[in-house]
Design a protein that fits this description.
It is built from four helices and two strands; from the N terminus they run βααβαα. The protein is mostly helical. It has one domain. The longest helix is centred in the middle third of the chain and has 15 residues.
Length: 66
């Protein structure tokens, strides 16, 4: 069984996009609003990928292999 993450966090967004942590938080908040999610719910890699247009493979390569 693999322990592969399915959620993305603000730190991952900041690393991936080269933005500050606070801008990563803002982007995730915007995505949550777009998908009608509550503030305590998580954003999945698929939702982030769909919203930004970045493929999941690139996201995993740059953020999840740390």
């Amino acid at each position: 069984m693999t322990n592969e993450r399915v959620c993305i966090y603000a730190k991952d967004v900041s690393i991936l996009l080269g933005k500050s942590y606070k801008q990563g938080v803002r982007l995730l908040r915007t995505i949550k609003d777009a998908y009608g999610k509550d503030t305590k719910q998580y954003i999945t890699l698929e939702e982030f990928s769909e919203y930004t247009g970045i493929t999941i493979e690139i996201i995993r390569e740059h953020c999840l292999k740390r």
